[in-house]
């Protein structure tokens, strides 16, 4: 099979950066994007059941912070297939030692890297270039009734978005801040 994917842990348990080793030759390159066997330890017993794509026109666009609630909480494997993004995962897991901490990773088509975001973590990103595209692999189906989110600028999260915000959805602008009495998502 040959291992083609290398994983590095982040400060949040289960939030893992995955890099893909491309085979280069005179024609260009070939690279593995997903392998159930290689990633089994990070996605235990999971199947990828949906693939989504987003295109963001403007540099500085922010989407997030989004997650699905149990029983539809999901693993998300996020990859930037055009341009560059500042990608963020936020730990919302009850009893996690890193509860309400955020990590960020720059994802780009050039770097060929991905971020794995496990159940109980929220995801968001800001585009660092115009015309950025993201590809998502999901372990659960989209369930509008289980969709949830928090404000990208929640004061407790202290996320330092690198650019001025140029574009956001109405829905994201109306997301709540994390309530003081929020004790986290129990999975
Ligand atoms: C997420 C999603 C949305 N939709 C619909 C709902 C809506 O009418 C339209 C656009 O959806 P949104 O505005 O939620 O798109 P967007 O704000 O880009 O949502 C995405 O944000 C990032 C941060 C994530 O992590 C993704 O999982 C997803 O939540 O597409 C689906 O049909 N399937 C899906 O899986």
UniProtKB/TrEMBL annotation:
EC class: isomerase
Tree of life domain: Bacteria
Entry EC number(s): 5.1.3.13
Catalytic activity reported: dTDP-4-dehydro-6-deoxy-alpha-D-glucose = dTDP-4-dehydro-beta-L-rhamnose
Signal sequence, renumbered to the chain: none
Listed InterPro entries: RmlC-like, RmlC-like_jellyroll, RmlC_Cupin_sf
Function recorded in the entry: Catalyzes the epimerization of the C3' and C5'positions of dTDP-6-deoxy-D-xylo-4-hexulose, forming dTDP-6-deoxy-L-lyxo-4-hexulose.
Protein name per Swiss-Prot or TrEMBL: dTDP-4-dehydrorhamnose 3,5-epimerase
